[in-house]
Amino acid sequence: LRQAVALARTGRRLFLAEFAGGILFLWIVLRLGWASRFRNGAERVSRRKILQAVIFCPALLLTLDIANLPFRLWAHTVLVGYGLSIEGWVPWLVDWAKAEGVSLIITTFIGWLIISLIRRHPRRWWLTAWAVTVPLLILGVYAEPLIVEPLFYEFRPLADGHPALAAQVRKTAARAGVVIPAERIFEMLASKKLTEVNAYVSGIGGSKRVVFWDTTLLQMGESEALSIFGHELGHYALHHIWKGLALAAAGMALGFPLLAWVFNFTLRRWGDGWRIRGPGDWPALAVLLLLVSLAQVALLPVGNAISRHFEHQADVYGLEVIHGVVPDAPQAAARTFQSLGEINLEEPEPSAVTVFFFYTHPPIADRLGFALQYNPWASHVEPEFIK
Ligand SMILES: [Zn+2]
Fold this sequence. Notes:
The protein has 387 residues and is mainly alpha-helical. Helix content is 71%, strand content 4%. A hairpin with a 6-residue loop joins strand 3 and strand 4 (209-213).
């Protein structure tokens, strides 16, 4: 418990320090004219916009991410110190470089796209930007489990290593009336790098899947694994990824015009001092990045509140789906939360302020308490999801 509380405090400090450091460094990059120097360099090499993007965007991003590296090193040191990660420094650095490569490719494309849209539609670029961002976001969620996740972890069908559990999993899904093909249930070989336990749902359409970390299967019994699966099946069956995407699209429809307005205001007010020629100039992307970072943190409590709602729904769904399948289901679910909290060193009872700002899930003690008291069957109330 002491470790969990200390880790949570360090995590919050790390988050705040990293955020403040990121904003400060972006401001320095603008103030010292580095962003405009990257643009000068890019324009000297080529007159073609796409080649300028290929030089400007990686130069800006690598500068920012190298400045951010000490925070990442600090974070890894903390995880290793608490025994949650066992990844050595060399593989860790290789993973960082891979993530950096993926991020450079994506951000270069997005940077080029945004500057092209601003130049073509100087007044209404935010509208076209929204219209292309939404399908790109959907494409990203589709491609992530197919392209990005395998860069960092090995996956195999759950049935390969755990045929008995895979059969139970299928039976549980069938009880909820959900058809989930065996090839969409995976085991992720996390134990080479991590000791934490976890499971998740990712992808949409043809890439949609449920993934168990192998650490979870190594440390938990079948009842606990099924109780975790019940929760993930909730996300899967209630289409939480699609709903999240729809909410993000709606949020961006409201936010983009406001962002464009603040962007123009910022450039009028400080653009000359930062040697930015106008909204369609490459270094203006650093301004946009600064504003988006500020907006992301300001909106964090909103996103987290929505996420906590989905997570609670998945908990309810999970309890309903294992009812009658797993012996003494409420106790099994409670044991799962207890193990999850102990192994992952989760702070059981964080303050309301901490939950409001940082928590994507309800606190583990609340989830455990809910699992023990949720019993619509005893009082003949209709269950919420599985009738
Ligand atoms: Zn969840």
